[in-house]
Amino acid sequence: MEEKYRKDLPVIGITMGDPAGIGPEIIIKVLSQSYSLLPCIPVIVGDSVTLERAARLVGWDGHLRCISGPEEARYLPNHIQIIVPEGLGPIPCEPGRPTVQGGKASAMFIEEAVSLAMKGRIGAVVTCPINKAMLNSAGYGFEGHTQMIASLTGCNSYVMMLAGERLRVALVTIHVPLVKVPELITVANVYKTIAITHKALVKDFALSRPRIGVAALNPHAGEKGLFGREEEDVINPAVQKARAQGMSVKGPFPADTLFWRASLGEFDAVVAMYHDQGLAPLKLIHFDDAVNITLGLPIVRTSVDHGTAYELAGTGRANYTSLLNALTMAATIVRNRNR
């Protein structure tokens, strides 16, 4: 790799996630087995003791380099460069056994990385999975990563997107009981999701005229009101509002055919009404390689599209493909935003 290219690589922070999960292992794997594929200089925000344990687990004999800030980061194969948040104490945990201390530590990693990104000291934040219950037990009252990062960045309008090579899905509602979904499907919420998704496809994915397909809530898109009125009264007005502003948006379409059409290339993204409607088809195609992207934030944030996988923690069998893709996606978005 040419020295000039090395200097031009963005520095991207990777939060270690829950110390008892597979985050530490997939970090070691991606940096030891695929470092030359990364279009960035990775810096881990985490705990050195936990990473050393993961290195022994996978048999990595590289070097752990603690740095005080991202300005010290260098393109260094066979090295892991780590920033340890100030005040981080010992983390008493073992693989597969989450603790409140681990929840507190994972929150500190997020806070440190987001602070560095907000100050422009790193180009993006890539997050490894956390335990939401332990996060809350440690005193952080957030549903998860996305809500915490939105709060830290002062963002009130954001959208979760899951993306793979063949399918991108943005969600109107995320982690809410299914019974509450209809009341959250409003013209304002659907339009907001379409608009933020459109802007991100242009700005972050460099698509000059993105095509968005919008899913219906009810079977057969409501069948003209026979199976529900949300399509006629809510979703279609939001689609028409977006179209009136020049966006290439179509729908609402029955969900049982829309995702197939999108996977064949008819749409650049699908707006789904609720979590499982959108993520079930996406994970059928992109179970190991999808990337979670938070649209609308003032910083670039991507994440792996899987959980802590405690059943795999400590076994050495965790798959790091999603982390590799999350890093690549983050670097691509940084490059597109800087154009």
Note down, in words, how this protein is organized:
There is one protein chain. By secondary structure, the protein is of the alpha/beta class. The chain contains 12 helices and 12 strands. Helix 8 runs parallel beside helix 9. It is globular.
List keywords for this structure.
339 residues, 17% strand, 12-stranded mixed β-sheet
How do the strands and helices of this protein lay out in sequence?
Elements: H1 3-8, E1 11-15, H2 23-33, E2 41-45, H3 48-58, E3 63-66, E4 79-83, H4 100-118, E5 124-127, H5 132-137, H6 145-153, E6 159-163, E7 168-171, H7 181-184, H8 187-203, E8 211-215, H9 230-244, E9 248-253, H10 255-263, E10 269-272, H11 275-286, E11 291-295, E12 301-304, H12 321-337
Parallel strand pairs: 1-2, 1-5, 2-4, 3-4, 5-12, 7-10, 8-9, 8-10
Antiparallel strand pairs: 6-7, 6-11, 11-12
Helix pairs in contact: 2-3, 4-6, 8-9
SSE pattern, N- to C-terminal: HEHEHEEHEHHEEHHEHEHEHEEH
Distance between the termini: 22 Å
Please report the total strand number as a whole number.
12
Low-confidence stretches: 1-5
Write out the strand line-up for the largest beta sheet, numbering strands in chain order. Answer: 3-4-2-1-5-12-11-6-7-10-8-9
Q: Helix fraction?
A: 40-55%
Coarse morphology: globular
Helix segment tally: 12
Main β-sheet, in a few words? 12 strands, mixed
Query: What integer is the average pLDDT?
Result: 93
Quick recap of the structure?
Helices cover 40% and strands 17% of the residues.
